Every structure is written in C-alpha cells, then in structure tokens.
Amino acid sequence: IFLQLLAGNNLFRLLTKEVYLKVYLSGRTTIAGDEVFAWLKDRQVHSPQFKIFSDSTLEKIGSKYLTILKKLGMLEGATKKRIVTIRLSEDELLFFLYVIFSVDDSTTDILKSPYREFLFLEREELIRALKNISFMPFLAIASTGEALTVQLKLSPQELVDAISHGTKAEI
C-alpha cells in the first residue's frame, strides 16, 4: 500500500519525502503532527495549490498523514509518534525495485531514481544489498563509476509468483 500511495498520491509522496524521510534519515526517534502542519503551512505560503486550504484542513491533512503511517507500521504511539526502524527484507526490496521500474522507467540507474530514497537505505547500503547473490536470477546489475544500472529479468507477475510460491531460490 505504501508503494501505491507514493506512486498515486503526489501529496503523500511530498510529505513522505520532505517531512517523514528527513526526520527518519536524521536519526530522530519521534515526529509530531506540528511538524507536518508546519510544512503544509509553509507550502500554503509558497504554493498556489495549498492556498485554498484553511488551517483546520491543513491540520487534518497532517493528522491523517501520520495516521496512515501508523497504520502502515511506520510509526507507533499517540500524540508524539515514535518512528519505527524500517528494514526491507530481500523479497520486499526486490518487489519494491520492480514497482519502481514499473512506475518510472525514465532511468535504469537506481541511484538516480526519484524513488530510491523510499527504500530507506543509504547509498552504500543499497549498493551492497543489490549485489547480493540471491538477486542474480531477478536483476542484471552493472556498476560503472557513479551509476548502478539495474535491468529486470522477469516480468512483475513472474516475480510475484516466484516470491509468493517460495520458488525464489529455484529460479
């Protein structure tokens, strides 16, 4: 669902990139609704799209955004939400890559993809993870200087079948 929200909802993607990810990657352990509201309020001043919203609407948007993250298991708690550390499993990372390249085929360099940061891995961690031998049946990876080119070997349906039937190791 997280991936669908990123791909299909521009506001969700912006909030996640500009608020949640900045807090998450800074190492902080909590996030408050006030932070989301402050970002929305700033956007209201600088973006015509947000000028039509009242403060109460912006507060509701911020509150609902944090509620969605909580339901997705990315936050815990009531007033001040505690940030849950996110570690994608191999299957989740592989599936996420397939979704990224299905949604945005503008580049095969995963390091330049606008969705890369949503993998919750620092650059070097991502490179190490992708060079994992268990990904070889699914991905063709080439590293050239600053680029990390990823080519998909299976269709998304074949990947889902392999993961869901536990045949990943057999391919």
Folded structure, characterized:
This protein has 7 helices and 5 strands. The protein has 2 domains: 82 residues; 81 residues, Arc Repressor Mutant, subunit A (Orthogonal Bundle). The strands form 2 sheets. The chain has a 3-stranded antiparallel β-sheet with strand order 1-3-2. Strands 4-5 form a two-stranded antiparallel ribbon. It has 171 residues and is an alpha+beta fold. A hairpin with a 3-residue loop joins strand 2 and strand 3. The radius of gyration is 18 Å and the shape is elongated. Helices cover 50% and strands 12% of the residues. The mean pLDDT is 87.
Task: Please supply descriptive tags for the structure shown above.
171 residues; Arc Repressor Mutant, subunit A; 3-stranded antiparallel sheet
Question: Which percent band covers the strand fraction?
Answer: 5-15%
Low-confidence stretches: none
Largest sheet: 3 strands, antiparallel
The structure class reads: alpha+beta
Number of domains: 2
Judging from the principal axes of the Cα atoms, what is the shape? elongated
Please give the share of residues in helix: 40-55%
Mean model confidence by pLDDT:
87
Order of helices and strands: HHEHHEEHHEEH
- CA radius of gyration: 18 Å
Quaternary status of these chains? single chain
- What is the spatial order of strands in the main beta sheet? 1-3-2
Walk me through the topology:
Elements: H1 2-8, H2 10-26, E1 30-32, H3 33-46, H4 55-71, E2 75-76, E3 80-83, H5 90-103, H6 123-130, E4 139-144, E5 147-152, H7 156-164
Antiparallel strand pairs: 1-3, 2-3, 4-5
